[in-house]
């Protein structure tokens, strides 16, 4: 090893010896899920530029799904959410799916049209973490989902894509049919 390589190895060793013990104390992707707490009063914009609030869906369970057009796992998850929404919508206690795009209205509208999403799509232009932070997603992981019961209490939060089996469990947890 040459002298510059030895110096680099020493500096790297010192840096890792400082960083690694602290890595186990790093902040988790989410804080403790706010299960059982009332969901905060939140407001977004729909794809027509009108305001939309979380409260307007009170009376049915709601699955909020935060996504973005540039997020690969989000794009993979959206068709599953569309199928889930179509199955839940006709049920009296079915889960109401609401998408929240961390994009501009044009990008969210284009993707909604391309994927033929029929459940409500809202936009939050500030980008991650935005209102998802109110549910514990402090660093803006996407996709990110929140299940809220019909009375407005948070039941579950999830970092990453939800799969059909997850969605069935969430429907059961919300008191609806899978």
Largest sheet at a glance?
7 strands, mixed
What would you call the shape?
Answer: globular
**Averaged pLDDT:** 84
Strand tally:
7
Explain how this protein is built:
- With 178 residues, the protein is α/β, with parallel strands linked by helices.
- The protein is built from 4 helices and 7 strands.
- Strands 2-1-5-4-3-6-7 form a 7-stranded mixed sheet, covered by helices on one side.
- Helix 2 crosses helix 4.
- The longest helix has 21 residues, at 3-23.
- The radius of gyration is 20 Å and the shape is globular.
Descriptive keywords:
178 residues; alpha/beta; 7-stranded mixed sheet; 4 helices; 33% helix
Structure described in brief:
With 178 residues, the chain is of the alpha/beta class. The protein is built from four helices and seven strands.
Strand and helix map with partners:
Blueprint: H1 3-23, E1 43-46, E2 51-53, E3 62-67, H2 72-88, E4 96-101, H3 105-115, E5 121-123, E6 144-148, E7 154-159, H4 164-173
Parallel strand pairs: 3-4, 4-5
Antiparallel strand pairs: 1-2, 1-5, 3-6, 6-7
Helix pairs in contact: 2-4
